[in-house]
Amino acid sequence: MFDKVSVSEQYKKVIKKIRSFLLSASTKEFLIFLFFVFISFCFWLMTVLNDDYESDFNIKLNMRNVPDNVVMTAELPTDMRIRLKDRGTVLAKYWMRHASIPITLDFNDYVELGTEVTVPKSTVVQKIRNQLSQSTQMISLHPDSIFFIYTRGEGKKVPVKFQGSIQVDPKYYISGLNCEPDSVMVYAPIEILDTITAAYSQLTKFDELKDTTAQRIPLQEVRGAKFVPDYNDVTIMVDVYSEKTLEVPVHGMNFPPDKVLRTFPSKVKVTFQVGLSHFKTVTSDDFFIAVSYEELLNSKNSKCMPHLKASPSIVNHPRISPLEVDYIIEQQTTADED
Known about the structure:
Elements: H1 2-22, H2 25-49, E1 52-64, E2 70-74, E3 79-87, H3 88-95, E4 100-106, E5 116-119, H4 121-129, E6 137-142, E7 146-152, E8 154-161, E9 164-168, E10 172-180, E11 183-188, H5 190-193, E12 199-200, E13 204-209, E14 213-218, E15 226-228, E16 231-253, E17 259-264, E18 267-275, E19 288-292, H6 293-297, E20 303-304, E21 307-310, E22 315-321, E23 325-331
Parallel strand pairs: 1-4, 8-12, 9-13, 16-19
Antiparallel strand pairs: 1-3, 2-7, 3-6, 5-7, 8-11, 10-16, 11-15, 14-16, 16-18, 17-23, 18-22, 19-21, 20-23
């Protein structure tokens, strides 16, 4: 209770001091001074912005409705530079568009002009003026001419191949690599198309990966060719290594029908590394450990060495323990002998 009263009293004292400060004669004079400074600044700014200025802006050029089989051999420029003159208030509005004025051309408007197309300057100027205030003057436009050249290429589907290097943390491994889409269409004149057997991603380097990573990678450009789509979504699946041990029986291999191998112990331990996602799926049935009859015939040792003949592709560094086991070869009795 005492603490609550104390805090309340302190709060009231602070509020009282702030109120006394704000209502003091010197503070009032200072705040009035700041108010008039702000008003003066606003009038000054309005006066300055009402003057005429010149400023440069970017023109972003886009082309729509371009057919997939159209290959640009001389590209349409993506940027133009324009110089405008107007009052500061008007130019400030243009700057609030991030200093860019977009222009969109329709490919269908130029189909009848052939494969070498020059876009009239008047067309571009008119599209720009449609986005400007009537009071704005265009001082200059660069470049002052726009042209592009294209061909209509043949098409075929080609596989996508990843180019680059992938390094993972030593405790991890790459469990899969997925490229989506796995194939793309390529359009080009027939003499170029015949030389293209695959679409390659741009060289990309991945270092010290510890988790599954996805990235959109542009395809490597081929002069005179067009890929649709021109990118590839690459997903690198990363898994952490875990160690597992299983007991696997030892089998005799290539033994005659009347002979059987007996080992002591009959099973050996196999220790290996496997991804955590596959840890439970790997069983002793996935391994085959054997000793060949030919090896034992040539051996004078009372022990034999089991060999790992088959193992799952998803395991790494399998190790057998013990390395040697005792054995005997038993003679099987047949029904005829009985």
